[in-house]
Specification:
With 542 residues, this protein is mainly α. Strands 1-3-2 form a three-stranded mixed beta sheet, with helices on both faces. The longest helix is centred in the first third of the chain and has 31 residues. The termini are far apart.
């Protein structure tokens, strides 16, 4: 169990539920309306999916705490614990469904209230389980039952004489309110059309510093279960700038010069239901991938939205009580119409290999993003049949998009760590100045600070896009020589349980046959490989 439980619980709603792992992640396509509106195809209520509520969790916790006071009561105590774990799974799912409903109708106040209520119930219940399990662990007769469910560094916090269940609930509600207020304030700034960008940047920077105030620089990456450090990332930034930024610019220029690019931009190949296309072609990758693509389609485990009243990002969320998952996709009606659903389907597919209960979830999004980006890479091989005459440039665009994930990921990663390391001396003005200077180094000159929703919702997350894209391109380069070998690499990494607490980025890559991607040597070789691709692509469109 992680020793940084409090830092994990104090992060945003997105981090707590891993709901936002996939909203539009490239700076190439970033717009300031990340929280804008949309219309949803889902009108389902969470009440249909869960009988758990906060009062029920409290009652079950009190029952467990009473039952551990009775000697020779082992089976009852185990049953009580399992009931609480199931309660949390159900609350997690209830929040997932209310999130889908709310994000599908962004400005509906009743849906927002239900969303807030469900999140608070989940958040507080998670703390109740920590309290109950910690105190039960202190009862010698039953300590073995709870040994794997306690957080040693916070045992004293949950079991001190001054802490009661009611007090713990009160503290948790305050924690939630502070966190929720910060995100609400941020979105109020983003959506305020009466103030100019420079003012939005400064107001957002002030909120950002407040959000970061609960984070410790020494554990910033630990809360994402990483086995690499911010210093290791910083040591590679010059290599990214020297090797990856130039090939990104060269590929962008080649794409812009192609005769297909304007057609893709103004007349993209789109599909009414992209998940039908995924199911149609998935069997050409593997029978297992085809099976879950068909399950997704048959059971309608997705929500496609569009319009001006819904959240215009995309994400996938586990449904642990149902042993399933659910996808939310905003259809931007451009050339991402199929690419984004493929990305989310990668998360969906991998979720079935991970049965971690909600309470024990310690997710590693670095590996999770390989599972999604890798699926996109495998589908590139099928573009000729899917996109016809636009296929070659669509492949180039997908490669460009993945490269952009590297550069934007490292840029934001460098920025976030630099701010946190110097937070005692940072002001809103210096935050914005630092952001602009780092973005310029990586070739981004038109990105406003307040555009980057992830750093407010999930501080420390963004580097996941960069490191996972490095690994996804290992699958891509392998596929050029042997598609079967690339599929095998993907199948291995997709079966790594990212929520288990045991999943680590570098060790997962090693066990699944990937290169060590966090090295100068790998990045330089990748740059050379991309350069060769650009030459071949430029020749093909000449």
């Amino acid at each position: 169990m992680t020793k940084h439980r409090r830092a994990v619980l104090l992060t945003s709603a997105a981090a707590a539920l891993s709901l936002f792992g996939c909203s539009d992640n490239t700076l190439f396509n970033t717009t300031p309306e990340d929280s804008s509106e949309s219309e949803s195809s889902s009108d389902e209520s969470a009440d249909e999916y869960s009988s758990a509520d906060l009062d029920g969790v409290i009652a079950h916790a009190e029952q467990l705490l009473a039952d551990v006071e009775i000697s020779d009561n082992y089976d009852t105590v185990v049953s009580d614990m399992e009931i609480l774990l199931n309660d949390l799974d159900e609350l997690y799912e209830m929040f997932a469904y209310t999130t889908i409903a709310y994000y599908s109708d962004w400005y509906d106040e009743e849906l927002e209230a239900e969303y807030d209520s469900c999140y608070e119930a989940y958040y507080v219940s998670n703390e109740i389980l920590c309290y109950a399990f910690s105190n039960c662990y202190m009862v010698d007769e039953y300590s073995d039952i709870f040994e794997d469910y306690i957080y040693p560094d916070y045992l004293e916090y949950y079991t001190s004489r001054s802490m009661s269940l009611n007090r713990l609930i009160g503290y948790s509600k305050v924690d939630y309110e502070v966190m929720d207020e910060n995100l609400d304030a941020y979105y109020d700034v983003v959506n305020d059309s009466t103030i100019k960008d420079s003012t939005k940047n400064l107001e957002a920077a002030e909120i950002y510093l407040d959000i970061l105030s609960v984070y410790d620089v020494d554990i910033f990456y630990d809360i994402y279960n990483r086995d690499f450090t911010p210093e290791e990332i910083i040591s590679l930034t010059d290599t990214i700038i020297d090797e990856i930024v130039p090939v990104s610019e060269a590929l962008g220029d080649a794409i812009a010069s192609s005769s297909e690019y304007a057609d893709i931009y103004y007349n993209p190949v789109t599909f009414d239901n992209p998940f039908e296309v995924i199911a149609e072609y998935a069997g050409r990758i593997s029978p297992e991938i085809e099976e879950y693509a068909q399950l997704l389609l048959d059971d309608e485990l997705y929500c496609l939205t569009d319009g001006s009243d819904c959240y215009n990002g995309s994400f996938t969320v586990d449904l642990p009580a149902e042993n399933s998952a659910l996808i939310y996709v905003y259809d931007s009606e451009d050339f991402y119409n199929l690419l984004t659903p493929i990305h989310e389907f990668g998360h969906f597919y991998a979720s079935f290999y991970d049965d971690t209960t909600t309470y024990l979830m310690e997710n590693n999004m670095d590996v999770a993003e390989i599972q999604s980006q890798g699926m996109e890479v495998l589908f590139m091989e099928l573009y000729d049949d899917i996109f016809g005459d636009q296929a070659e440039t669509m492949r180039a665009l997908k490669l460009y998009d993945t490269i952009d994930s590297i550069t934007s990921g490292f840029a934001i990663g460098e920025f976030e760590y630099t701010v946190l390391k110097n937070i005692d001396t940072m002001t809103p003005e210096s935050v914005v100045e630092l952001f602009d200077s780092i973005m310029e180094k990586y070739g981004y000159t038109d990105v406003e600070f307040y555009y980057i929703t992830h750093i407010f919702e999930q501080p420390g997350y963004y580097i996941s896009y960069g490191v996972s894209a490095l690994a996804a391109l290992d699958i891509w380069s392998t596929a050029v020589d042997s598609y079967d070998a690339a599929v095998e690499m993907y199948e291995r990494i997709s079966q790594v349980p990212i929520n288990s607490g045991e999943c680590k980025f570098s060790s997962a890559l090693e066990s699944c046959g990937f290169d060590d991607v966090l090295t100068e040597d790998y990045i330089k070789r990748l740059s050379d490989y991309i350069s060769e691709y650009i030459s071949a692509y430029a020749e093909s469109i000449a």
